[in-house]
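Weekly modeling sync, notes
Attendees: S.R. (lead), two postdocs, one rotation student

Agenda item 3: backlog of single-chain predictions. S.R. asked that every request posted to the team notebook include the full sequence so nobody has to chase files. The rotation student volunteered to paste the first one in as an example of the format we agreed on. Action items at the bottom.

Example entry:
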Amino acid sequence: MDFLTTRVESMGNAAADHAYDFRVDRPAATLRHSVTESIRHAIALGRFGAGDRMPERDLCEMTGVSRTLVREALRQLESEGLVEVIPHKGPVVAVITAHQAIGIYQVREVLEGLAAELFATNASPKELQALRKALDVVRQAYEGGDVISRLAAKNQFYDCLIKGTGNEALGGSLHMVNARAMILRGRSLQMPSRWKDSLSELESILEALEQRNPEEARTRAVYHVRQAAKTALMSYEQT
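Predicted structure, as returned to the notebook:
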């Protein structure tokens, strides 16, 4: 990640013995995006838990940027359903209940299954090659044990998948769903051994895409989401 650095400390089981510095680098063209992603990752890793207040001063100290940039990032995260602004209390992390999580995964099944089907049908050789490279990055991140890197690599994989579908509307819908699903993905990837199964499932999806088999690609994509859902819902039972 170009906007996050990792320093080794003890954080228990939640982050595989890694603590994270959420300060961001300052290239002007990407600063707003970097601040948004930094706060998003802080939520995904539990730096701010569900229902926790997110004082602007704390976010400024955490990211090392101005209050104006923090406010812009919070507005973006509010539009994605990750943050709620409560009168007389300010921004808080949205609560995603187990029931809501089930709904998110149901929608992901439909959208990601369709994305895999369309990619198998429409993607160019160049887009398929980009997806292969994205999966290589996922593999490296998963094996490295850094949850933030895993999340970023998985997001890049989905970006390549969406691009190859040729369906702009699908891309917009998946972006909004995955914005909230990232929190759930953070929960599932912190569960023991899930990353190994997740990687195997992604490799299976890529195999079907390389074979240009839309039906099988859809089936494997749906299976991947269902397995992720099972793991994420298990994490609710443990909290």
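Discussion: group reviewed the output briefly. Residues 159 and 180 are 15 Å apart (CA to CA).
Action items: rotation student to repeat for the remaining queue; S.R. to check formatting next week.
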